[in-house]
Amino acid sequence: MGRYKGLRGQYGQRPQVARVDPSTSLVTVTIGGNDAGFARVLTACIVKLPWSSACVDQDGEVARRVGGLRESLLGVLRELRVRAPRARIVVVGYPRPFPARPADRVDNLSPGDQLWLNGVTRRLNDVMRETAVGLDRAVAAFGGPGSVEFVDAYDAFDGHEAGTARPYLNRLIVHVKELRVDSRSFHPTSEGYRRLAELVDRQIVTGPGRPMNNLVLTHP
User: Fold this and answer.
1) Which of 44, 47, 68 is nearest to 58 (CA)?
2) What is the 8-class DSSP label of residue 212?
3) How far, in Å, CA of 179 to CA of 149, rounded?
4) Do residues 38 and 4 touch, judged by C-beta distance below 8 A?
5) Closest among 127, 146, 116 to 27, alpha carbons compared
6) Which residue, of 9, 97, 100, 197, is most buried by count of CB atoms within 10 Å of its CB?
């Protein structure tokens, strides 16, 4: 999910945030990858010449985009709070796409490229975590209802990353004529989504570790 898809909609679709109203009690959201241009970054990494450094050469631009995400992420979370002020908003981070210690090339990505892309994912997750935690602290400080919680999914696919025997990510799909990587590439498979759902379920049970101030007392 990206900021504009979430708040304004894309390709003729309704904004995703339009599905949220005051009766909503739980919102789960993963956001930031599209805004950080991850698909474009991945495309540049994969369609490069095998010996090229075009992948990691994007680091400066990627760092700039990831660093600028904080305000847009905060805007989406605030809008969700306005529309569903009593809801628990669970922000789910991105899983690490490649092994922690890659040994082989995967889809034209060298071990160094894979480590760099893992690092980009970590940076994106850090921004998501800091934004969610900061907003939740503000909600708690003012005694507001609901919560904003972060689920760290970085190691969720450990042993099932891209290039492993049983990956939880879709294989690479390239449109050769356009030199474009299909948006389904490196997105979770059904098993991957089940794994992420397990983490969300656990967070729902565990809770934010503080009162959510959702109890309303009325006098007879």
Assistant:
1) 44
2) -
3) 38
4) no
5) 146
6) 97
